[in-house]
Amino acid sequence: MEKFQNGDTEALNELYERYRAPLFRFIYRCTRDDQLSMDVVQDAFLKLQQKKHYFSPEKGRLKTYLFQIAYHTMISKINMRARWHRLLPFLYKEPVNISRSDEKMEVERMLQSLSNEQRAVIVLFYYHDLSQKDIARILNIPLGTVKSRLHQAVQKMRKEWGIESDGKGS
């Protein structure tokens, strides 16, 4: 990132190659929309290019910074789409993937049953190995909110999967 901030355009290409796929997977898992996901990733890198001097390693990791840009770009695009088209903000197009197991499809179905907020936390935590603190920064919410959304989402998925919770309550 330092090379890119100092004007090395090849460094942007390296960053793009490194983070394009993880960002796309994150946005796709939240939106289930190929085109929107590609647009968000492109816009996130454009914003990174425009605001490259705002990033500081002392404030956090580059991965966290990029995911934050992508998440807020996604929310902005979804809000704009909802405003203009009065449609549901997420489309459920299934990507072409020949070797999908039933279990993977069931997990994807359960992810879609979560609220957008819960889904974002689950995807960032389990699929992208981000800490709860990093997730709080990306989503611009308190750490306690991340923890509660994560807990609620896991409980909901366990219930749908038929796994007993920790024995408290139901």
Molecular structure report:
InterPro entries: RNA_pol_sigma-70-like, RNA_pol_sigma-70_dom, RNA_pol_sigma70_r2, RNA_pol_sigma70_r4_t2, RNA_pol_sigma_r2, RNA_pol_sigma_r3/r4-like, WH-like_DNA-bd_sf. Keywords: DNA-binding, Sigma factor, Transcription, Transcription regulation. It comes from Aeribacillus pallidus. Belongs to the sigma-70 factor family. ECF subfamily. The protein has helices at residues 2-5, 9-31, 34-50, 62-85, 102-113, 116-127, 132-139, 143-161. The protein is mainly α and 170 residues long. The protein folds into 2 domains: 1-96, RNA polymerase sigma factor, region 2, helix turn helix motif (Rna Polymerase Sigma Factor, Chain: A), CATH 1.10.1740; 97-163, Arc Repressor Mutant, subunit A. The longest helix has 24 residues, at 62-85. The radius of gyration is 17 Å and the shape is globular. It starts with a helix and ends in a 9-residue tail after the last helix. The model is unreliable at 83-100 (pLDDT under 50).
Task: Produce a short descriptive summary.
The chain contains 8 helices and no strands. It is mainly alpha-helical and 170 residues long.
List keywords for this structure.
single chain; 170 residues; mainly alpha; Rna Polymerase Sigma Factor, Chain: A; Arc Repressor Mutant, subunit A; globular
